[in-house]
TrEMBL record:
Co-factor(s): Mn(2+); Mg(2+)
Alphabetically ordered keywords of this record: ATP-binding, Kinase, Magnesium, Manganese, Membrane, Metal-binding, Nucleotide-binding, Receptor, Serine/threonine-protein kinase, Signal, Transferase, Transmembrane, Transmembrane helix
Gene field: ACVRL1
A single GO molecular function term of this UniProt record: kinase activity
Protein name from the UniProt record: receptor protein serine/threonine kinase
Originating organism: Echinops telfairi (Lesser hedgehog tenrec)
Pfam families to which the protein is assigned, alphabetical: PK_Tyr_Ser-Thr, TGF_beta_GS
The organism's taxonomic lineage, starting at the top: Eukaryota, Metazoa, Chordata, Craniata, Vertebrata
Matching InterPro entries: GS_dom, Kinase-like_dom_sf, Prot_kinase_dom, Protein_kinase_ATP_BS, Ser-Thr/Tyr_kinase_cat_dom, Ser/Thr_kinase_AS, Snake_toxin-like_sf, TGFB_receptor
Length: 501
């Protein structure tokens, strides 16, 4: 994929304004309004959002208007017009239909002709860069104040996204503090995201797959993870960027988002997603290397369940979020943090639903989930794609498989099994859709639960939970909230000593 600079810059500008033309959008609070949609990004004459907007941009000396919808607090709508850019926001249906904007008059002393920037939005981006520098200056002042007050040591990981070393403060930790966020997403202010992305140095490739590559990067001496999407997975980047920039997802057990950017490398466009870096890697990697005591296995399971429950629940209010189903839950998409808790990653296939608008947002991604983890109703194509609960039930099936992967690596009476993926003994290494359909739907197999789990009260509870995640009837499966509460109860229950004979 190679997006042209004009189209790319316009896209990033529209995203900065919170615009998602072409698709109906969800409002985190309040009712939706219909808006006139006239833009290269529009898929029809009408779009739906939390507010309407008109954007006027001078492109190669020609003024062009873009009318569309917005999805979050229109922070940038409070700016003043320039000779290259103007904008208007309103909150009633079709209030952007008959609005006419003008650009600020060009000062007479300004040179013309050769002095004009060749890029379509170069002057606009220069203005945005100045705003970003101002934001960074404010952050620097706040950082010094925090340091003087000694607040840094009092903050938990949900506020300090990347842990500081013992010798110095975390710059990203301060940047990601709630005082500096836009209030709409869970990462940096949008304008600062691009500044940070351009300062990241890629150090080593730590993972490769069909999705692309993951690198460990350095930003001012701090490690970050940089996921570089392959061109065929561009929709996953768009989806994750949209979700992280419009939904409050700050949670200990959801992978922390820092920035998203398009960057030019070797005359092609790369799509970057910058997140926290966790040196233990994925749960899949961790289980290959590590055997588990029962209590650690439970800790991994509880933390993963907390992340899934947070995704699945809809939270109402200005600090709320829509309900989200993951759709590609697996051990490779669960990361292990330094405190040996899990966090859920990869929202490229996520589905969102808000009760207030009753709109099911399934995105626009042709990619399907991982076949090995697909629920029977997905494999036999009986899933109700118009029902949000259906997607949550497929997550529960997959979560049961992740639990099975964890419990295989638990030491009981000195016995432990090697790591194996689900259905390792029934399908090839890279199973086809038909391979999985035969095993799961026709033969109705589920992974064999090790008998030794019955010897431990906590592990026997995990075994029962797996069975309840794998019911053929999707609606009979446990909910993520029930799984979380049951695991927390198992975790807090005193471990009974074994009887001696």
């Amino acid at each position: 994929m190679a997006l042209g600079a004009p189209r790319r810059d316009l896209l990033m500008l529209l995203m900065a304004l919170g615009l998602t033309p072409g698709d109906p959008v969800r409002s985190s609070g309040g009712s939706l309004v219909n808006c006139t949609c006239k833009s290269p990004e529009c898929r029809g004459p009408i779009c739906q959002g939390a507010w309407c907007t008109v954007v006027l941009v001078q492109e190669e000396g020609v003024s062009r208007e873009h009318r569309s919808c917005g999805t979050r607090d229109p922070e940038l709508c409070r700016g003043r017009p320039t000779e290259f850019f103007n904008h208007y926001c309103c909150y009633k249906s079709f209030c952007n239909q008959n609005v006419s904007l003008t650009l600020k008059a060009t000062p007479s002393e300004q040179p013309s002709g050769d002095g004009q920037l060749p890029l379509v939005l170069g002057p606009v981006l220069a203005l945005l860069a100045l705003i970003a520098l101002g934001a960074l200056a404010l952050w620097h002042i706040r950082r010094r104040r925090r340091k003087n007050r000694g607040l840094h040591s009092q903050l938990g990981e949900s506020s300090i996204i990347l842990k500081a070393s013992e010798q110095r403060d975390s710059m990203l930790g301060d940047l990601l503090d709630s005082d500096c966020t836009t209030g709409s997403g869970s990462g940096l202010p949008f304008l600062v995201q691009r500044t940070v992305a351009r300062q990241v140095a890629l150090m080593e490739c730590v993972g490769k797959g069909r999705y692309g590559e993951v690198w460990r990067g350095l930003w001012h001496g701090e490690s970050v993870a940089v996921k570089i999407f392959s061109s065929r997975d561009e929709q996953s980047w768009f989806r994750e960027t949209e979700i992280y920039n419009t939904v409050l997802l700050r949670h200990d057990n959801i992978l922390g988002f820092i920035a998203s950017d398009m960057t030019s490398r070797n005359s092609s466009t790369q799509l970057w997603l910058i997140t926290h870096y966790h040196e233990h890697g994925s749960l899949y990697d961790f289980l290959q290397r590590q055997t588990l005591e029962p209590q650690l296995a439970l800790q991994l399971a509880v933390s993963a369940a907390c992340g899934l429950a947070h995704l699945h629940v809809e939270i109402f209010g200005t600090q709320g979020k829509p309900a989200i189903a993951h759709r590609d839950l697996k051990s490779r998409n669960v990361l292990v943090k330094s405190n040996l808790q899990c966090c859920i990653a990869d929202l490229g296939l996520a589905v969102m639903h808000s009760q207030s608008s009753d709109y099911l947002d399934i995105g626009n991604n042709p990619r399907v989930g991982t076949k090995r983890y697909m629920a029977p109703e997905v494999l036999d194509e009986q899933i109700r794609t118009d029902c949000f609960e259906s997607y949550k039930w497929t997550d529960i099936w997959a979560f049961g498989l992740v639990l099975w992967e964890i419990t295989r690596r638990v030491i009981v009476n000195g016995i432990v099994e090697d790591y194996r993926p689900p259905f390792y003994d029934a399908v090839p290494n890279d199973p086809s859709f038909e391979d999985m359909k035969k095993v799961v739907c026709v033969d109705q197999q589920t992974p064999v639960i090790p008998n030794r789990l019955a010897a431990d009260p906590v592990l026997s509870g995990l075994a029962q939970m797996m069975r309840e995640c794998w019911y053929p009837n999707p609606s009979a499966r446990l909910t993520a909230l029930r799984i979380k509460k049951t695991l927390q109860k198992l975790s807090s229950s005193p471990r009974k000593p074994k009887a001696t004979h």
